[in-house]
Specification:
Bound molecules: Fe4 H S5, zinc ion
Radius of gyration: 21 Å
Strand order of the largest sheet: 5-4-3-6-8-7
Structural class: alpha/beta
Shape: globular
Strand content: 5-15%
Order of helices and strands: EEHEHEHEHHHEHHEEHHHEEH
Number of strands: 10
Helix content: 40-55%
Largest sheet: 6 strands, mixed
Length: 325
């Protein structure tokens, strides 16, 4: 139920009708005050975690969804220097085409620069095609998708001379990953999960300005602000472990408002106190022999290897077609 839109709760600042009652913060606000409050929060976290300054150039990775477009809108509104990056994955036409259109429309309306990298156009295959060809993850696209997205984001940030690369991961995303990593006691992942990942040789600083903002708060922001975003999630997200953990966490949050935030903040605090100090280790990175991007793999990076394999498969298929009578 969309109970939250009809609540008779009053805005704490002006007494008007609240659009959002945030039990986790014991705070309800009207539309106008909510549009002030949320960016103030985001700015506070950008400063607290030293993500970037107003002099620095930030590349915002946008997918056309509420989190990334909402983030870009907030950063732009706060006066940060931003440009956007949209990666065309070629996933189901109604999903990829519409998400690109909404991202382009968003940028055009604000006179902002949006860089578009269409994977099929630039490299020769869509993500679903790539998944089948490479057979990584037995044809499931998420692992090749993640690999391509990470590579393209890093490279675009580096080549564009950006100081930071910002993604729209919200608190719900972060906590779901945290829970999954905790269940697996994945020490290395836990050590690296943070609001900011410092730059290292060939890798731009990565930041998550929405890491303390609830998903529900982002939805409310975009609706009140009138940002047109794509409601659908990528069709391949269905049935993912992340969604499973999100559902469990939502149940916990319902019984105990603030549970997600507390889990995340306690984690950050434990980390600060050195809980993962022993496992923290920087993978040995060196430039890929082919593209020069940093990689921990010997020789060529996994992106170059993947696309090599695609070329090989394509050539084999073409040769077979030619040889056929
Ligand atoms: S990885 Fe998988 Fe996502 Fe790529 S294929 Fe879709 S669900 S978009 S976050
Ligand atoms: Zn108000
Ligand atoms: Zn490479």
């Amino acid at each position: 139920g969309r109970r939250l839109w009809r609540c008779a709760v009053k805005c704490r600042k002006c007494g008007g009708t609240a659009v959002l009652n945030m039990r986790q913060h014991k705070l309800a606000l009207c539309g106008a005050h909510y549009l002030e409050w949320l960016p103030e929060q985001v700015e506070r976290f950008i400063e607290k975690y030293r993500m970037f300054t107003r002099q620095e150039k930030v590349l915002v990775a946008v997918s056309g969804g509420k989190d990334s477009l909402g983030l870009w809108d907030i950063l732009h509104g706060l006066g940060y220097r931003t440009e956007g990056l949209y990666i065309g994955l070629g996933i189901a036409q109604d999903y990829s085409d519409e998400s690109r259109r909404l991202s382009e429309q968003f940028a055009a309306e604000r006179g902002l620069t949006l860089h578009v990298v269409d994977i099929a156009q630039r490299f020769g295959a869509t993500i679903p095609e790539l998944a089948v060809i490479s057979n990584r993850g037995h044809g499931k696209p998420c692992s090749v998708c993640g690999l391509n997205k990470r590579y393209i984001m890093n490279r675009a940030a580096l080549e564009g001379g950006f100081d930071a690369l910002a993604t729209g991961h919200n608190l719900d995303d972060e906590v779901a990953v945290l829970m999954q990593n905790t269940f697996n006691w994945a020490g290395g992942y836990l050590a690296r999960q943070a609001p900011v990942l410092a730059a290292s040789s060939g890798l731009t600083r990565k930041v998550k300005p929405l890491c303390r903002i609830y998903e529900r708060e982002m939805t409310a922001y975009c609706l009140v602000r009138g940002i047109a975003y794509i409601y659908e999630e990528c069709p391949h997200a269905e049935g993912s472990t992340t969604i499973y953990y999100k559902e469990i966490l939502n149940k916990m949050e319902e019984d105990r408002p603030g549970a997600k935030l507390q889990f995340y903040l306690s984690f950050l605090q434990a980390k600060e106190q050195g809980l993962f100090a022993g496992v923290e280790h920087q993978a040995d990175l060196h430039p890929c022999q082919r593209c020069g991007q940093p990689t921990s793999a010997p020789g060529e990076c996994s992106f170059c290897r993947l696309w090599d394999k695609v070329q090989l498969v394509k050539r084999t298929v073409a040769a077979q077609a030619e040889a056929a009578p």
